Structure prediction request, 322 residues.
Amino acid sequence: MKVLYAFQGTGNGHLARAQEIVPILKKHALVDTLISGHQTQLKSDFDIDFRFKGISLLYNKTGGLSYKKTFLDNSFCKALKVIRNLDLSAYDLIINDFEPLTGWAAKLRNVPIVELSHQASLTFDETPKPEKKDWLGSLILNQYVPCKKKIGFHFENYNSHIKKPVIRHKIRNLNPVNKGHYLVYLPSFSDEVISNFLTRIDVEWKVFSKYAKQNQKFKNVEIFPIDEKKYLQYFESCEGILCNAGFETPAEALFMNKKLFVIPIENQYEQECNAFALDKMGVANSDKLEPEKIREWINSDHRIEVNYPDNIESILTKEVLY
Prediction:
């Protein structure tokens, strides 16, 4: 059996999940890999066979999704050309982690495809969503990858086709301790906005930034370029994590029993849904950087206990490949 594993390059979560899934797939099939998108900072620890610029969501520097940048800075004509020319004839199955080029190419050519992603979980009615529906955000989630068979990942099993998060072994192998500092990963905010805000809250902050080129320190705030080894070091020893309402980072924080505070990216419906689901679980959150809410969170020791089993190989072999 020959499989193409295609994943989205916007953000780091898709690549982090691929690092766990691809080696398992290679035990059961011949596997090629494809990435599209241009906003990931992580480096792959496996060979990527095909790379395309694709379509990425782009943000302003104050925490919001920028529709203007997204539509102006992406080449939709080039993406359409790739979709028309993408040859999938060598593959028995496409496994797709929210990657639009292979999604649409597979639909046009009637190639077997399964979407295996967090975003797939948001297309099920049982998944928690805010009462105020975002019609454009919902449309993107449902049509970005036009695929009938979907298996989703989410914080809880809201549906039999929704699985618990894939926690990579780089996280599972850590030994969590508490050295009192707080880890920050808010890539939708500029370093200036973050440092100006956090210096007003008197705890030790370790900020990882896609904008930083070198280490910087402003009073109680240290800013580091993206560095997975250093990130995991501070992740392991932090008291709490302040991050956007993505999926992988909050899931890993919950798995490590760390205090968690999330801020959804403005105008990003997926993150609004994630924040809504986390709020129902009891996780602290706000729509923006709010000093009083964050101070209240720091002074609290409220943590959420979860059970995220290491069962991705069983899911792949029983529900995806065969």
The chain has two domains: 2-164+310-321, 171-299. The longest strand covers residues 2-8.
